[in-house]
Amino acid sequence: MTVPGGAAQLTDDEVDAAVVDTFLADATAAAPRLAADPGRVAQLRSRGLAVLRVTHARVRGLPPAAAPTGQPDVGAARARSGLHPVESLRAASLLFQRALPALVAHHRDDTFPGGRSAAEQVALVLHQVIDELVIPASVTYVDVLLARISDANRDERRRVARDLHDHTSHGIGAAMQGIDLALHLHATGQPLDVDRLRTTRQLLLETLNDVRGLATRLRDVVGDRSLVQALQEYLDFTAPVGLEVTLTEDGEEGALLPDHVKEESYLIVREAIRNSFLHGRRATRLDVVVRVADAQLQATVVDDGAGFDPAAVDVTRSVGLASIRERAEGLGGGVALDAGPGGVRVVLTVPLPRATA
């Protein structure tokens, strides 16, 4: 960008256009997901120009100008589309870096209160204006995520209630019938039906396992354990008899995962495992792999069942897939789904701080 050298002789609009053009060209590398969509690029241009216009006015001490609002729900829109705030912060930092030298050169002959230099005044005002733009968007982004968490918790409670009604209550009811029959036979002097008693005992055992599985799901705490240890406990309690299950760890033992990453990743992987147990028709094996390497956590859940059509899933009855994706986006990561035929593969990817990995 050649603006700084002759910025003082250019109009505000000419300086702003040159700065924003350079900013958008560099944003492709600094914030690729933000700059990949033409609509977002147009939004970046509009908001960048607005920031610069407000900065010019405040630097000159003109009547107070409000920071651009344009689209007050930009944070919410980016949250809904899976864009992490780090992309916006990178773009804001880049705009500051590209605009500062051009604006300092453009305002170098202006006079500022308190004997400030052009560099001091422009840097202070530009930082303030960008802050006023970024902070509200961050708040609305967090609001959307909090609403999603609330919805996920509500849906989980509803699902637990359905499981208690459809499975646990049914098992207890059937067992009670078996016990009532045994008591009736005993009271009338008839021989006990031993086979029926064995069936009743099996029903009670299966119901007990269901309750243990629910208790494990409701606890939702990894705590001091590793992610793999928590998943192993869940598998030990819930894996169906006859299904071959493997859990492989690669690199987590030497990494110190942040607590929120462990907790949310556990919920995501657990949901993928649960979906396989419930819906993996004709599956004979389930493989779970947790890998930490190259500043990234990757967890893979694969079964060899019949697969399914994601478009045919009734979202009013199943919130699992939506919950998985939303929790992954909350971590700044993503989920890839391959639904077969020939099995289902779910791959969670979460970026990690370099010091963690």
From TrEMBL:
Positions of the Histidine kinase/HSP90-like ATPase domain: 264-354
Membrane spanning residue stretches: none
Entry GO CC: plasma membrane
Pfam families, A to Z: HATPase_c, HisKA_3
Membrane-related topology note: Multi-pass membrane protein
UniProt keyword terms in alphabetical order: Cell membrane, Kinase, Membrane, Transferase, Transmembrane, Transmembrane helix, Two-component regulatory system
Localisation per UniProt entry: Cell membrane
Keyword Transmembrane helix: yes
Cytoplasm keyword on record: no
MF-aspect GO terms: phosphorelay sensor kinase activity; protein dimerization activity
Protein name: Signal transduction histidine kinase
Organism from which the protein derives: Modestobacter marinus
